[in-house]
Amino acid sequence: MSSLEEAKQSVIDEFSMFDEWLDKYELLIEKGKGLESFPESSKTEDRLVKGCQSRVWLDWKVEAGKIWFSADSDAIITKGIISLLIEVYSGRTPEEIASDDFGFVAEIGLKDNLSPTRANGLVSMIETIKVAAKANL
């Protein structure tokens, strides 16, 4: 597994290949389609990310000192966003996640190119990931 910095740089490089945001949205959609299946039985109220316009379920488990995330959403762009975050942060230690600034999200321009409600949802997803990390420090 690559380091956290390498994972973030990989995403930055991947998004920088496209000049148009329409192409970047397509990349997000493809990432969402590649998200591992999330069991219907796990789509419970306690796993819903609060503050998202779409329904986003996020779950995690800790194994060997690392947090592994799984998620799903009922909206394809949102599913791509949570997939992107999982790609970078799943399999990291709670310390790595809790101390990270999630700055790569701004660097790829994601928050600035989302609708205000989706941007709020992105912030809520990030906060939920941070809460999971801090709870396991």
- Fraction of residues in β-strands: 5-15%
Radius of gyration: 14 Å
Gross geometry: globular
Biggest sheet, spatial arrangement of strands: 1-2
Q: Which blocks of ≥5 consecutive residues have pLDDT under 50?
A: none
Annotation, overall tally of beta strands: 2
Assign the structural class, choosing from mainly alpha, mainly beta, alpha/beta, alpha+beta, or little secondary structure: mainly alpha
Number of helices: 6
Termini gap: 21 Å
Largest sheet: 2 strands, antiparallel
Q: How do the SSEs run, as a string of H and E?
A: HHEEHHHH
Helix content: 40-55%
Mean pLDDT value: 96
Assembly annotation: single chain
Describe it for me?
- The protein has 137 residues and is mainly α.
- Helix content is 52%, strand content 12%.
- Strands 1-2 form a two-stranded antiparallel sheet.
- The longest helix is centred in the C-terminal third of the chain and has 20 residues, at 116-135.
- The chain starts with a helix and ends with a helix.
- The mean pLDDT is 96.
